Structure formats: structure tokens, C-alpha cells
Amino acid sequence: MGFDRTTTLQQMVQQAVTDKQTLRIIGGGSKSFYGRAADGQKLEVAEHRGVIRYEPTELVVTVRSGTPVRELERILAEHGQMLPFDPPCFSASSTVGGMIASGLAGPRRPWCGALRDAVLGLRCINGRAEVLQFGGEVVKNVAGFDVSRLMVGAMGTLGVILDVSLKLIPRPECEQSFVFDGVDAEALAWVREWTSQGLPLSGAVLDGRRLIVRLSGSDDGVRAAAQCIGGQRFADREAGRWWRNLRDYKHDFFADQRSLWRLSVPVSAPPINILGDWLYDWGGAQRWLKTALQSTIIREMVVRAGGHATMFRGGDRQGMVFHPLSPAVYTVHKSLKKAFDPHGLFNHGVLYPDI
């Protein structure tokens, strides 16, 4: 059940081509703070919604871009299934299209896979008002370089996402969380060791002086892993709420409005010596930082650690929000933009100034 607005959206894009009008793609509007500031006429896709095809036995779903993420999660939960990458829901209006465009993933990502890994196929409208389809709707149809995955994290700059086919995973039979108090970043080495041992981790966060670890899997597997790692048991209901708040950026760390940086570094990278408030997710591979330090200094230090930095919230949204690209990579991005959107219609400047 849902509403197919493909023809209407295609006509609106064609009109924009004729009028030489730029478009700002809007889903639920819950991520309007993210990325560089953009101009253009609104192209709203929220009414283009609904599950097109769902095969629980195949662990695959095809869904329109305007479908609320929470609605999709409810449908999957009825069949004991879930999206593996643990997508954040900034609000009840957060859509599947916005999920794909932002490319963001929650605490399970290092152990259950990235959003890009779950994309099997996708339909979109390009900058010539053509409806294109890439990939397939079953795992065996996806091989080699898959164009549909380019849309993940592209912030809507390559086209209007119409629908997407996604791989699913079963919901875990058992989940337990454990807290280790009075620790520092050195404790993240325990997480690397537990991962190398094949323990069923699905979350590992250093929250101030606390390490919180989540185990997910079969009853027997989780119980055996719990005996291995130790720690104090986190009450299930409280733990569930805590992980949801972290996933949806409602944890206390995200509550104030200071500039917030998202750093991606190798999981084994040591602490970066920047004065500010820190939260380590993904076992240390994703680090959140609140600081007043200049962006050039932050990025210089993060590059030395082997990573990159995004100004996730706040700061100068007219400037460089996403990490600057090397000249060679920037040329590739420009070429992709020209191929998909030759007239520069879609979300111009949201990702980088000329893309």
C-alpha cells in the first residue's frame, strides 16, 4: 500500500530543466541541518511512499523513498527482521530517501555492515528527467560495480531517489548490554580483541568514562560471550532506550547546540589531542567531538590520524562542511555529477561548492 508519484516527480524535473531552475529535494526534512546550505525550488518526495515488494523468506524489501523509516521498521519487525545498518531516525518524518542520501548508520554498523552494503538496487530520476534503474531486487542479481550504491551519501546531488531494494537480517534472538566504569580510550583495545575472537558484538561506545558494549545473537552465544567479557549488566529496558537514543542522536551528548564534528578514523587510531568533549562509537572508528577549535586545525590533526572530519552540525554552512577531497577524487565527483545531472539541478552545493 502507498502512493506512486513517479510520473508527477518526473514532470516536475522536466519543468525544472525547461525553466533552468535548481531543485532542493525534500523528504521528511529531518536532516535539513546536515550539509552545506542549498538554494532552489523545493521538490517534495514524502508523498511518494509505500512498500512495493517484501519477501521475508528472501530477506529483501523494495520501498519508495518517501516512506518513513519508522514505518518500514515496524513492518520488518512484524516478521522478525531489521535493517542491518541501524539507521538513525531524527524524527517520525525521517524517510528512506533521506536515509540513503545521507548514508548515516547507527552503532551496529561495524559488525552488521554499512548502508551501502545493504543496497541491492535503486530507481531514480536523473538530471535529464529520465527514470533510471540500477542493480536488482535479489542478492544474486548484484555483482561487480553497482551504480545504485553511488547514491548512498551523495546528499541528493545525483538524482531523485524513487525506490530502493535493501538486504535485511533477522532480529537477534537475544541482546544484552554491559557497562565498564572508570575506563579511558585504552579500553577500546578490549573491543578490538573481542571482535578478533568473533564475539557477537553489535555496539561498543566510550561514553565519557564508561564503556558500553552490546552483544546480539543466539541465547547461548550471548551468554557465552557475556562470561568472556565481564562487566556490569545493563538492565535490558534501560539499555534498549540508551542505544536508541544514541542511534537517533538523542543521547545527552548531542543535546546542546555547540558545533559538532563527526570524525572517521582507523579503529586502532590513538586519541586525538584536541581539547573538547568526546564520544567514541563503532569501537573507536567513529568519534564525535564538540569543540571551538578552527576547522583547518581539526582536519589537519584528523588527517594525521589517518581519517577525515565532517562538520556534522553548526559552524559555517557556507563553507566546507564535508572533508575536502584530493584533486583526483574531486575530478571523479565532478564527472559523476555531470553524467547524472548535467544541468546542475539537484541540491547544488549541498555536498561541495561546485557539486
Question: What do these coordinates show?
Answer:
The protein is an alpha+beta fold and 355 residues long. The protein folds into three domains: 176 residues, Uridine Diphospho-n-acetylenolpyruvylglucosamine Reductase, domain 3, CATH 3.30.465.10; 74 residues, Alpha-Beta Plaits (2-Layer Sandwich), CATH 3.30.70; 56 residues, Alpha-Beta Plaits. It contains ten helices and 18 strands. The strands form four sheets. It has an eight-stranded antiparallel β-sheet. Strands 1-4-5-9-7-8 form a six-stranded antiparallel β-sheet. Strands 2-3 form a two-stranded parallel ribbon. The chain is globular, with a radius of gyration of 21 Å. The two termini are 36 Å apart. The relative contact order is 0.14.
Main β-sheet, in a few words? Answer: 8 strands, antiparallel
Total number of strands: 18
The CATH topology of the largest domain is Uridine Diphospho-n-acetylenolpyruvylglucosamine Reductase, domain 3
What radius of gyration results from the CA coordinates?
A: 21 Å
Number of domains: 3
Helix content: 25-40%
Question: Which percent band covers the strand fraction?
Answer: 25-35%
Distance between the ends: 36 Å
- What structural category characterises the helix and strand content? alpha+beta
Give the strand order, joined by hyphens, for the main sheet: 14-11-13-12-16-17-15-18
Name the CATH class of the largest domain: Alpha Beta
CATH architecture descriptor name of the largest domain: 2-Layer Sandwich
Rough outline: globular
Total count of helical runs of at least 4 residues:
10
| Whole-number mean pLDDT | 95
Q: Could you state the order of secondary-structure elements as H and E?
A: EHEEEEHEHHHEEEEEHEEHEHEEEHEH
Low-confidence blocks of residues: none
